[in-house]
């Protein structure tokens, strides 16, 4: 029998006071055309705001209140407010202009993965791994205050299925959700009636978009396909097979004539919804693409792309002066005519009478590109949430074949229904972004030194550094040196129990101290290098030091001192000195005042 009890964990991040660059991948993007500001949701737990008119030093400010990956963001209320979701299980409401957190919603019980926004109703939906989808009134959320911070809500659904993707139309009449169970759930949030599901994908649903009139949706999946669905008929009407691997993100233009897609194969494609066999390669990233954001301006349109690396890129999209026609809906009669001899609803083109678009928003002067031979028959996909959480930073981009072939003949076999479709894939000549927000260098490797105080790290540019866990700071930057040689230099014949855990998921060292384990490490003061750190002359080389005791005392004395300074500003210069000279606080080390500390509890199972 397994017994469960709550176990405490204290975590802190070793970082600079100001982190002006993304230190890990970027999960989500939002753009304010009125101020030309781009908002990025980082895997380093930080939301950053960028001035896209400045090519050098574009950072405006950071928004820091989350304790884990920021997974999604929504800019709302005409750009005044921002809603964010995070793996720390919270949804936060921000003042987007001033950058401060207005309120925190702790309704979810697990990672919050996605948000969806109904612009005309000012409503936002949140969903994640706990199986619940909550619908929030943004006006209510922005009215919360420190004294009036209670909001009542009930989930739209409480099934056991995790949600990876979520979308709503602007009027809030349709909400769709997808996850690892290969089906799309569809609700009318106004009536909260029982949902229906759409099935045709063979792997996780990773991206969704709803047509503004609520008649169609588009889905992207880990099976490598993009599907177009009629909600009236509740079935798939077209399948787009442009990608060779998982599709992670979709954007559709305003008149629903072009879908932009990207994913694990790193390629950004634009597909004509009038003729789903016609796709144009906008560009290619160096890492899996996590998010696309389309901005349609009067004179210029562009795509922002965010990937597993720290850079954010902008790709220009040239307009054709004649504009584009909107996609027409396939009616029941047309659908029946084209599918009367086909029991599989996963065919590539339902209505072949639909006209090919007479114009294009794609980059002009395109050249043909050949897709890999497995582009339309890729079954090697994964449901795992971590399928893009790690990557090889030195992995080279896929090569582009510039042969003058106008068509690629791809044989698609759907449940023994063989249809030969000539799909045209064009590649833009200008395959480089016109603007890039350069990111920082995430730490990708670490080694805990034998005395269990220092850790060696290596970032993705090969720079090696030494961090002092007890002081929560970098003690030395060694530059580009051999990581293995530095490990050998620090080898010692000493045993100290493990008392902390190192986590690099945010691109910076995060130290976890678990209840009980953090107080298990005793070491001589000389071996720990602490003889000259304390003011007590009674310490000698064989004085026993408890690492966890020293670190916790240093962390919380700083907090208490900061609180005292806020209460009594006149004592601001003397409180830390007094604390260090106090007999009860003689084992105190200087820790940077900006060090974020996170306290949480998690379930710990014991075998009886």
Q: What overall form do the CA principal axes indicate?
A: globular
**Roughly how many Å apart are the termini?**
6 Å
| Low-confidence spans | 320-325, 329-423, 575-585
Using the coordinates above, name the CATH class of the domain at 200-386 and 401-437. Answer: Mainly Beta
| Main structural class | mainly beta
Can you tell me the CATH architecture of the domain at 200-386 and 401-437?
Beta Barrel
Helix segment count?
6
Strand count, sense and barrel status of the largest sheet are:
7 strands, mixed
Name the beta content range: 35-45%
Brief digest:
This protein has 608 residues and is mainly beta. It is 9% helix and 40% strand. Residues 370-388, 396-422 have a biased composition (Low complexity).
Could you characterize what this model shows?
The protein is mainly β. Among the domains are: 200-386 and 401-437, Beta Barrel (Lipocalin); 443-607, no CATH class. The protein is built from six helices and 41 strands. Strands 22, 23, 24, 25, 29, 30 and 31 form a seven-stranded mixed β-sheet that branches. Strand 37 and strand 38 (510-514) form a beta hairpin. The longest helix has 21 residues, at 547-567. The radius of gyration is 27 Å and the shape is globular. The N and C termini lie close together (6 Å). Residues 320-325, 329-423 and 575-585 have low confidence and may be disordered.
């Amino acid at each position: 029998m397994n017994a469960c009890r709550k176990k405490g964990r204290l975590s802190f991040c070793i970082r600079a006071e100001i982190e002006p660059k993304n230190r890990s991948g970027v999960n989500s993007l939002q753009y304010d055309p009125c101020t030309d500001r781009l908002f990025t949701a980082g895997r380093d737990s930080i939301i950053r705001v960028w001035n896209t008119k400045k090519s050098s030093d574009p950072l405006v400010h950071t928004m820091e209140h989350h304790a884990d990956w920021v997974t999604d963001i929504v800019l709302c209320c005409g750009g005044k407010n921002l809603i964010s979701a995070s793996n720390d299980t919270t949804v936060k409401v921000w003042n987007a202009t001033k950058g401060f957190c207005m309120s925190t919603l702790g309704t979810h019980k697990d990672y919050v993965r996605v948000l969806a926004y109904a612009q005309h109703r000012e409503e936002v939906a949140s969903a994640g791994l706990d199986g619940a989808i909550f619908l929030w009134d943004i006006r209510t959320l922005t009215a919360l205050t420190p004294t009036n911070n209670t909001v009542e809500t009930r989930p739209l659904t409480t099934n056991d299925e995790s949600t990876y993707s979520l979308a709503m139309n602007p009027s809030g009449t349709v909400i769709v959700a997808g996850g690892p169970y290969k089906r799309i759930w569809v609700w009318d949030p106004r009536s909260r009636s029982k949902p229906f599901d759409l099935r045709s994908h063979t792997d996780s649903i990773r991206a969704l978009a709803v047509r503004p009139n609520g008649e169609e949706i588009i889905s992207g999946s880990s099976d490598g396909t993009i599907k177009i669905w009629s909600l009236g008929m509740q079935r798939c009407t077209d399948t787009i097979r442009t990608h060779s691997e998982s599709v992670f993100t979709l954007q559709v233009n305003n008149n629903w004539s072009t879908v932009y897609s990207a994913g694990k194969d790193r390629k950004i494609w634009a597909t004509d919804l009038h003729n789903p066999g016609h796709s144009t390669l906008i560009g290619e990233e160096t890492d899996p693409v996590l998010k696309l954001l389309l901005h349609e301006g009067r004179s210029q349109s562009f795509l922002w792309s965010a990937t597993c690396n720290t850079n954010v890129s902008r790709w220009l999209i040239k307009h054709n002066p004649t504009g584009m026609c909107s996609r027409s809906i396939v009616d029941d009669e047309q659908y029946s005519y084209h599918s009367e001899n086909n029991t599989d609803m996963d065919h590539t083109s339902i209505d072949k009478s639909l006209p090919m678009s007479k114009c294009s928003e794609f980059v002009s002067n395109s050249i043909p590109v050949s897709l890999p031979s497995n582009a339309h028959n890729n079954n090697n996909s994964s449901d795992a949430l971590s399928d893009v959480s790690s990557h090889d930073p030195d992995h080279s981009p896929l090569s582009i074949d510039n042969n003058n072939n106008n068509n690629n003949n791809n044989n698609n076999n759907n449940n023994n229904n063989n249809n030969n479709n000539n799909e045209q894939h064009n590649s833009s000549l200008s395959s480089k972004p016109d603007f890039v927000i350069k990111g920082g260098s995430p730490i990708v490797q670490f080694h805990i030194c034998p005395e269990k105080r220092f850790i060696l790290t290596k970032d993705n540019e090969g720079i090696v550094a030494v961090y002092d866990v007890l002081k929560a700071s970098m003690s030395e930057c060694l530059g580009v040196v051999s990581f293995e040689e530095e490990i050998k230099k620090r080898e010692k014949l000493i045993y100290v129990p493990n008392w902390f855990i190192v986590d690099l998921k945010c691109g910076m060292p995060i130290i976890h101290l678990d209840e009980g384990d953090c107080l298990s490490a005793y070491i001589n003061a000389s071996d720990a290098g602490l003889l000259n750190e304390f003011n007590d002359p009674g310490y000698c080389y064989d004085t026993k030091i408890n690492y966890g005791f020293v670190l916790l005392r240093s962390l919380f004395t700083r907090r208490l001192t900061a609180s005292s300074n806020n209460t009594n500003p006149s004592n601001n210069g003397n409180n830390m000195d007094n604390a260090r000279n106090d007999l009860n606080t003689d084992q105190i080390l200087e820790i940077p005042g900006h060090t974020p500390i996170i306290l949480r509890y998690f379930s710990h199972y014991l075998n009886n």
